[in-house]
Write a sequence for this structure.
């Protein structure tokens, strides 16, 4: 569960960085496991721990125990059904947990689903948005120290809570439909989207902000997506986990077993055929498969892969920005992998944006064959496209000059495979810089992928040389993380004996135990410019000029030597 992006902040999290939280689902019923995960999340530096309530454990009881066993981490309900408790009991629960946790509590509320409301709480699931509105407003009144606002005529006077007011206690709403998202913009401190397509999130954020503005709010609620996640040591195992576990319990399960709510939501957002494929592939509750025709839902609704899936954060920021531009212009931006199974031949499209294109890219070939406008983020020789790219030459020189100014005289380069243009350009510029400074060039091109492990092995190789480097620049942030690990394994001090920097910034680099200097490639600007260029080509048939996006070197501990 992401507790915020740059302008999406959770309680207790600095607005200058992205927080990350853990959310445990109602399917986990082992108390000892839940407590262990909460303590472990705090030990590992996570910012939040959220507990959902369904039809098993009482979330408030477990969170009370967690509050007494943790010191720093934000805790919250993620989420509680507004049908399971009255507004009065929800307000008492929130005030008590906020007191026990010493101000670390976030109250997450949601309208739940027909299955849970009718199947467990024995209530009719009618007017869920109105119910969510009424309960949220009443809870807020009580936490602010006000009296209950009666909804019916009674003989007794309305009460207020018998404890000190908890004004400002954060309330997040788990809105799925447009009306509930707008309600979050109007009444809540945060929005927690769940099973909302990643590419549609910019549209949801627009709804949130517009509703807040109509209500007179100067800032919009925080956006904290709850995203099912599956990670494994290798790609094959990761795909198996994503297909059988994540798909089972989060896609197929919710589409086949939780009523029409999620089916309708996804269908309305452009995934009707994928929803139908899941339903057809699971005619009974005995199977929970996601057929190949619906695999796009895995990427849209979950995060899955290996720990070294380094492209994810960069691509999400690029495509989120591009999606916002596309939606505002009346276009839908669909995500597709660059393989023949990702873009079926019968699907029509107006144009394509391809990130880091390589020879043989299937989407590039389809666009050329169909005479469709093409914009690439990165160069690809022999292809007529509008190119949006970074100035990698300046970026490389900036890092090497920074190393030099801090005393490095044996800088090395660890490069990802040079089939992508950015890697080729980085290697060439590094070699030019070394020649100008009369230094030998030490280049290691990884052969085993773009992982931390590849960077670690490269570092071990470099550090075993008779004259090991005193600085390493890696052409990918995951490689830089691996270089740091290799240096630590070799008992090499960072940054005194070895300075490290990476191309492309990331949360992992920024919040590593040794924060790693990084080149911010401005993926948000790349995505915006690419979408604007593509739309211009589609609508005017003009070919926009190529654009170069400047990068910024963010200096952190890994390359800052004490004088």
């Amino acid at each position: 569960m992401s507790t915020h992006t740059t302008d999406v902040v959770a309680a207790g999290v600095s607005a200058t960085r992205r927080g990350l939280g853990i959310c445990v689902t109602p399917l986990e019923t082992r108390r000892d496991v839940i407590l262990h995960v909460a303590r472990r999340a705090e030990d590992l530096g996570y910012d939040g721990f959220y507990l959902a309530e369904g039809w098993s454990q009482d979330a408030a009881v477990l969170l009370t125990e967690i509050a007494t066993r943790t010191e720093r981490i934000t805790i919250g309900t993620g989420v509680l059904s507004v049908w399971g408790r009255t507004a009065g009991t929800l307000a008492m629960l929130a005030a008590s947990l906020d007191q026990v946790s010493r101000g670390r509590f976030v109250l997450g509320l949601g309208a739940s689903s027909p299955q849970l409301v009718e199947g467990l709480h024995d209530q009719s699931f009618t007017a869920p948005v109105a119910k969510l509105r009424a309960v949220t407003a009443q809870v807020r009144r009580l936490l602010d120290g006000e009296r209950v606002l009666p909804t019916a005529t009674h003989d007794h006077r309305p009460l207020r809570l018998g404890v000190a007011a908890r004004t400002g206690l954060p309330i997040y709403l788990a809105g799925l439909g447009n009306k509930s998202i707008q309600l979050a913009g109007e009444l809540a401190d945060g929005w927690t989207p769940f099973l909302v397509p990643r590419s549609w999130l910019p549209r949801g954020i627009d709804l949130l902000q517009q509703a807040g503005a109509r209500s007179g709010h100067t800032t919009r609620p925080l956006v904290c997506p709850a995203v099912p996640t599956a990670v494994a040591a290798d790609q094959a195992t990761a795909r198996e986990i994503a297909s059988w576990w994540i798909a089972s319990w989060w896609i197929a399960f919710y589409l086949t077993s939780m009523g029409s709510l999620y089916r309708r939501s996804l269908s309305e957002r452009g995934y009707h055929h994928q929803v139908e494929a899941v339903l057809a592939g699971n005619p009974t509750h005995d199977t929970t498969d996601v057929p190949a025709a619906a695999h796009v839902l895995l990427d849209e609704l979950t995060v899955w892969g290996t720990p070294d899936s380094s492209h994810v954060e960069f691509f999400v920021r690029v495509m989120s920005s591009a999606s916002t531009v596309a939606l505002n212009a009346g276009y839908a931006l669909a995500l597709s992998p660059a393989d023949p199974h990702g873009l079926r031949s019968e699907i029509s499209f107006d144009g394509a944006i391809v990130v880091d294109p390589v020879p043989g890219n299937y989407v590039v070939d389809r666009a050329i064959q169909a005479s469709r406008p093409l914009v690439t983020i990165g160069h690809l020789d022999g292809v007529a496209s509008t190119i949006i790219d970074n100035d990698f030459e300046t970026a490389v020189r900036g890092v090497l000059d920074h190393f030099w100014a801090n005393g490095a005289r044996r800088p090395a380069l660890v490069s990802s495979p040079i089939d992508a243009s950015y890697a080729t350009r980085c290697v060439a510029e590094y070699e030019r810089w070394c020649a100008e400074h009369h230094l030998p060039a030490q280049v290691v091109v990884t052969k085993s992928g773009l992982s931390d492990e590849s960077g670690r092995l490269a570092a071990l190789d470099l550090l075993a040389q008779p004259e090991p480097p005193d600085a390493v620049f890696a052409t990918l942030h995951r490689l830089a993380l691996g270089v740091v690990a290799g240096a630590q394994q070799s008992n090499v001090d960072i940054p005194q004996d070895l300075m490290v920097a990476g191309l492309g910034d990331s949360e992992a680099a920024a919040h590593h135990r040794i924060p790693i200097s990084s080149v911010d490639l401005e993926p948000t600007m790349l995505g915006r410019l690419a979408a604007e260029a593509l739309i211009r080509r589609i609508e005017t048939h003009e070919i926009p000029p190529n654009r170069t996006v400047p990068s910024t070197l963010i200096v952190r501990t890994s390359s800052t030597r004490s004088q």
